[in-house]
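Posting for a labmate who doesn't have an account.
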Amino acid sequence: MAMPVIHVWSDEPADGPTNMAADELLAGESLRRGKLMVRLYGWETTTISLGGFQKHEDALAAAEIEGLPLVRRPSGGGAIVHGSDLTYAAAVPKTHPWGSSPQALYDAFHEAIVQTLAAYGVDAALWRPSQPASVDADESFFCFDRRASGDVIFRPEPTAPGGHAGRGHKIMGSAQRRLEGAVLQHGSLLLRRNADVGGRAAHPGVADLADAAAALPSTGELVDRWLALVARAAQAEVVREAGGFRGPRAKEVAGQAARFREPRWTARR
């Protein structure tokens, strides 16, 4: 029997609506092929992605991000300042073992990052609340101020007396949207502090927090090791697709992106 595969594409930077449209199409492609798929991509300029359920008025009130492009994700979670992070989208059919368990999909990608960073001397761990069954009630505006079970925390603080994990510095978070037949997961690994923002919008990344002795790799090397570990956990192999995901689907992406450009989508909440 052939080993399952994870299809991976790397796309050139794009604006927010284009990236969100491509991610939704990735979910559709995942459902059609019945495969786990990953898209890696960048941003043309520093951009704020707003969680699908966040209030638009809260984004307008955040002076630290005033004037920056804003796009609303279809997935949940808090606002992310993109541009100095590694952004990914993963899509999996609901029939896949990771598609039937939101936490399993979340943990698979995050645990692989923990192991990858450890290989380069960076101390990180998955954050767990004191009561694993509880719902995360953290409503901070920015994603990297929030804590949810499975978030990646740099050098986690010792567990507090009540059994609650120390908050530490969050360096990776993800959010999901359960679509018809497939699950779309957005994720962001903060590589370094974004120089275009300040105040509460500026969070330290891996390069800012790691010890001077840490041998930080290139982004490409980090991604290769990370995805290899994701594939090992899935008992699959990585298949790197030639070219980007968007290229052959340019017309579809442009059509889908129009919805994400509409003010009524951005201000829908």
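Reply:
Got it, the structure tokens are right above this. The first helix runs from residue 16 to 33.
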